[in-house]
Amino acid sequence: MNSLQAKYPLVIFDWDGTLMDSIGRIVSSVQNAAKSLDVPVPDAQAAKSIIGLSLPTAIATLFHDVDESLHPELVKCYSHQYVELDTTPTPMFEYAEDLLVNLKNAGCLLAVATGKSRAGLNRVFNSTGLEHLFDASICADESQSKPHPAMLETLLKDLAVAKHQAVMVGDTVHDLQMALNAGIDSIGVTCGVNDAATLTKLSPIAVADDMRALSSVLFR
To answer: Which one from 14, 21, 86, 185 is the annotated catalytic residue?
Structure first.
């Protein structure tokens, strides 16, 4: 019998910067895409600021001063960089898999709400072997971009879970704002894009610095 008791029946995770340490690869892929098309290269902080948004929205936001006709090419170049060319490692955060297994063993439903495309999420599911732990997932190309609440509303409906029974875990203001917009609780993590002070402005129930700290928030 599992001795751990989860506080929420449903835990919804962002992926990049929350479960997987992929921020460095995203930033370098954005910068290399800009270089390849000879447009102004965003600094690391600017590139980080769009992580979590759907890719077309992220490119349009980050390169708002660049001719819009180049935006589709930037999307293609970024995807090619991230999938084919960039070799920056993207490991799962330490204890992330253990946390997911512990939540599953405690009877939790688990879901992913990510700015990745479905093809992108399937790739990391395949590379990590963690898809079996999740009861549902929704991607940016299947819904509206964060911080619109549509992703969370879809998950709640599909899993037949009430708002007060769910929590969103994410590393960006986009994740936490989405939770606010959907009317569900959120927990911020500082292992990805935004720091504790920034995340706290979006009224999470807690902010955790790593997966073990997150575990102490999710379990009674």
So the answer is: 14
Look up 158 and say whether it is catalytic.
no
Structure tokens at 71: 């935006």
Give the residue from 94, 114, 214 showing the smallest Cα distance to 155: 114
pLDDT in tens, 153-195: 999 999 999 999 999 999 999 999 999 999 999 999 999 999 9
DSSP string across 18-36: TTB--HHHHHHHHHHHHHH
Three-state DSSP class for residue 172:
coil
Cα torsion angle, 166, 176, 193, 40, sign: positive
Q: Is 195 a catalytic residue?
A: no
Q: Tell the burial category of 148 from Cβ atoms under 10 Å away from its Cβ (0-12, 13-18, 19+).
A: middle
39 exposed, middle or buried (CB, 10 Å; 0-12, 13-18, 19+)? middle
| DSSP letter, residue 166 | E
